Structure formats: structure tokens, C-alpha cells
Amino acid sequence: MKLSSFKDTAGETRVGVLLECTPGPLLIDVTRGYASYLRVVEHEPRSMAVAAARVPTDMRLLLEGGERSLNAIRATLSYARESLSRPSEGEAWKRAGL
């Protein structure tokens, strides 16, 4: 798993994880991606708040989350791989800034 800090289009620092896929690798915003997973798969009504706590946008805080944060990132990667295998979902992910 390759984690990276980056700035989004609003200039905010985020944490991303590299996802190897076709046609090429994507950097997935782990907080937003996990929020999407929680909303769609777990039906969590407070998905963004839960995601922000479990996979914060600060790399140091995320790593302090230990195994629980890493498991959330793994769930996000699995969800992203599955979603991105469907062409319409891939475009939705890009539009959402994930």
C-alpha cells in the first residue's frame, strides 16, 4: 500500500493511496473514498464524519490510527477496485474528486 500526501483542487492537504488499475494508476483520496464506501456499502448516515475520524486528512494522525485506519484504507481500496471496474462508476469517482 502506497500512501501519499497531496493538495486537492481547493488547496487542502489530503492523504491518498495509489490504486493500480486500467488504464493507469489513480491516487484515491482515502477520506472521501472511505466516506463513499461507508455511505454506499455500510449505509452510514454520518459517513463523512466517521471517515474523517477513522482516516483523517493528516498523514501523522492517520498513521496514529494504526490497524483500524489501515483496515479502513483496505476497505476503500477494495471498494474502489470493484467500483472502477464498471465504466460508469469510474466516471462518477472522477467527478466526485475521489
Notes on the protein architecture:
The protein has 98 residues and is α+β, with helices and mostly antiparallel strands. The protein contains 5 helices and 3 strands. The protein has helices spanning 30-40, 47-54, 59-64, 66-84, 87-95, and strands at 3-7, 13-19, 26-29. The chain has a 3-stranded antiparallel beta sheet. α1 (30-40) packs across α2 and α1 (30-40) crosses α4 (66-84). The longest helix is centred in the C-terminal third of the chain and has 19 residues, at 66-84. The mean pLDDT is 87.
Write the layout of secondary structure elements.
Layout: E1 3-7, E2 13-19, E3 26-29, H1 30-40, H2 47-54, H3 59-64, H4 66-84, H5 87-95
Antiparallel strand pairs: 1-2, 2-3
Helix pairs in contact: 1-2, 1-4
- Mean pLDDT figure: 87
- The H/E string reads EEEHHHHH
Largest sheet: 3 strands, antiparallel
| Structural shape | globular
Counting DSSP E segments of at least 2 residues, the number of strands comes to: 3
Give the neighbour order of strands across the main sheet: 1-2-3
User: Structural class from helices and strands?
Assistant: alpha+beta
Residue runs with pLDDT of under 50 for 5 or more positions: none
User: How many separate helices?
Assistant: 5
* % residues in beta strands: 15-25%
* Helix content range: 40-55%
Radius of gyration: 12 Å
> What's the end-to-end separation, in Å?
17 Å
